[in-house]
Specification:
This protein is α/β, with parallel strands linked by helices and 184 residues long. The protein contains 7 helices and 4 strands, in the order βαβααβαβααα.
Length: 184
């Protein structure tokens, strides 16, 4: 089962993340793939300007929250394939916002992928250019082609991971695949 969790919805203090809460929202179902991304409304240029705050001053809190969330996900879903997708910009960005997003993507990568060993869609090393191609011009959402591209990339990564997982885990230690059912 694929489970997509958008970290922006669970990053504030009103909804504290815990292993128990994560297991409850998935109703105890074995999750094969968890895809995580995050919103960053507190780091949004407009919101920062409105509150007269600085992007770099807000980053340490974001980093600690993201690190906590990644550790909770690893504890809640120890057998799942975990994939990190960089945060989506709200729109096409100016130079200042582009630099901030690049910095944020690097921080997310360092925490989620380096520290917690989440997989990353490596094909898209330059997410800024990638998103410029994926976005509907002057809109706040990804185009159909963009969604299709990301879905294909996730599918390819999942196929590689699943193949490796099947080789490493005997059938009695994982749920049944079509191949296992044919052998019965």
């Amino acid at each position: 089962m694929l489970y997509l969790i958008y970290v922006g919805t669970i990053m504030d203090d009103k909804c504290p993340v815990s292993v128990q809460w994560l297991k409850e929202i998935t109703e105890g179902i074995l999750i094969d793939l968890v895809v995580m991304s995050c919103a960053y409304p507190d780091l949004c240029d407009r919101r920062l300007e409105k509150k007269n705050e600085q992007f770099d001053n807000k980053l340490p809190l974001f980093q600690s929250k993201l690190s906590h969330i990644c550790s909770m996900f690893k504890l809640a879903f120890p057998d799942s394939i975990m994939i990190w997708v960089p945060p989506l910009p709200q729109k096409l960005l100016n130079d200042k916002q582009t630099n901030q997003l690049k910095k944020l993507i690097q921080i997310c990568y360092d925490i989620a992928c380096d520290e917690y060993n989440f997989d990353f869609l490596k094909r898209y090393q330059n997410w800024i250019d990638c998103y410029k191609q994926f976005y509907v011009k002057d809109a706040f959402y990804i185009s159909k082609n963009g969604v299709r591209e990301l879905t294909i990339e996730l599918g390819e990564l999942m196929k590689k991971k699943w193949s490796h997982y099947i080789q490493m885990n005997p059938p009695n230690k994982r749920f049944k695949t079509d191949n296992d059912l044919l052998k019965i």
